[in-house]
Amino acid sequence: MRIALDCRTITAHKTGDRSYALGLSRALVDAVQDDDHLLLYTWEPSDLVRFARSNVRAVVLPASPRWTWTPLVFPRDLRRRRVEIAHVQYIVPPVAPCPVVTTIHDVSFRRHPQFFPLKHRLLLNWLIPQAVESSAAILTGSEATRKDLVELYDLPPERVTVTPYAVDDSFQPQDRRAAERAVRDRFGITGPYVLSICHMHPRKNLPRLVRAWTRVAPSVPHQLVLVGKKGWGNEELNAAISAAGQDREPVFTGYVADADLPVLYAAADLFVYPSLYEGFGLPPLEAMACGTPVLTSNVSSLPEVVGDAALLVDPTDERSIADGLAALLHDPNRCARLSEAGLCRARLFSWKRCARETLAAYRQVLGQ
Predict the structure, then answer these.
(1) Rounded CA gap, 6 and 135, in Å?
(2) CA 186 to CA 266: how far, in whole Å?
(3) What's the CATH number where 158 sits?
(4) CB 92 within 8 A of CB 130
(5) Which end of the chain is more exposed for a tag (fewer CB within 10 A), N or C?
(6) With a threshold of 0.85, does the pTM exceed it?
(7) 261 belongs to a structural domain
């Protein structure tokens, strides 16, 4: 096979799209056969060049203006290089010279349109149906999202393949004291803390988390630490923080580099992720891989990812979130059991498996 993989998201800040492109591209480099050819596309220089070998090449393909990359620049290069199958995320070239496989991570804009700005909803509701219609195959990370795609777009189930995602090898248990020192030195966080990591917008449910935290904070010595860049629609979050009072106010780190995330997980007593909808949910899996006990939502794909290795709560109920926080923070033995279970659960997911199943989807499309 001559394969083109759209890896442009690896040059962006950490998001699920970026983690997927980076994890899959690395694993595909090792999974492709000697007679396959893998082209890893970006639109600016990246460290993908280190994967180059006789049948793997990093292709830097700029476009100006950038919106022309998908409809014009990319298809033209696919034709020139005689690519047999292309793999993109979400957005498909309107006219492509080869079959296109599309990964759709979630359809939150359909399940929860109220969480998206109008222009985003309009754009996604225009582009995603086109991608679904024109893709030779659709990949996604969870059975929950597969069911959403089949239902919302009236798809034959066999057109959607689940290729579960994984986490980077850097997410693993660390020396606790060393992790605590690193967090203190890099972020000025001292003492025990509860951690949440996400791109801050309404779907992540942070206002309810902050209000739940105000119920629990007086009875524990912990701080609530929120990590991630701010997105849109944070008015309710700001109001919840103001109402919490200075002594219960969360610590914000803003966006942090990938290299800092493992120590933030490893030094935390608990990771909390009360999202209202996830197509897969990488942060809980990252936390489990680091040995950190997890509290997360009982909706969408999250129960499928964490199994019985996390405490599940109702994300729409502040009392349920608060009771879950209190139950774990007051029970170190239960946290220790979840930590061990989480480590075992995280080992079930690997980018090697994701790459193998992705290659199988390519071969099925090409009739091999």
Answers:
(1) 14
(2) 14
(3) 3.40.50.2000
(4) yes
(5) C
(6) yes
(7) yes
Neighbours of 217 (CB within 10 A): 23
**Number of independent structural domains in the chain:** 2
Q: Where are the beta strands (DSSP E) in the chain?
A: 2-6, 37-42, 56-60, 85-89, 100-103, 137-140, 160-162, 193-197, 223-227, 251-254, 270-273, 294-297, 311-313
The mean pLDDT value for 182-194 works out to 95
DSSP assignment, residue 114? G
User: Looking at the structure, do residues 64 and 135 belong to the same domain, yes or no?
Assistant: yes
For the record, the structure tokens of 29 come out as 């480099």
Predicted local confidence at residue 53, as pLDDT: 86
Strand locations in 21-175 (E):
37-42, 56-60, 85-89, 100-103, 137-140, 160-162
Cβ–Cβ < 8 Å for 288, 342: yes
- Would you state the structure tokens that stand for residue 178, as one six-digit string? 């060393």
What domain range includes position 117? Answer: 2-166+350-365
Q: Please state whether the peptide bond connecting residue 65 to the residue before it is cis, i.e. omega within 30 degrees of 0.
A: yes
C-alpha span between 288 and 149 (Å, rounded): 28
Cα–Cα distance measured from residue 153 to residue 160, given in angstroms and rounded to the nearest whole number: 11
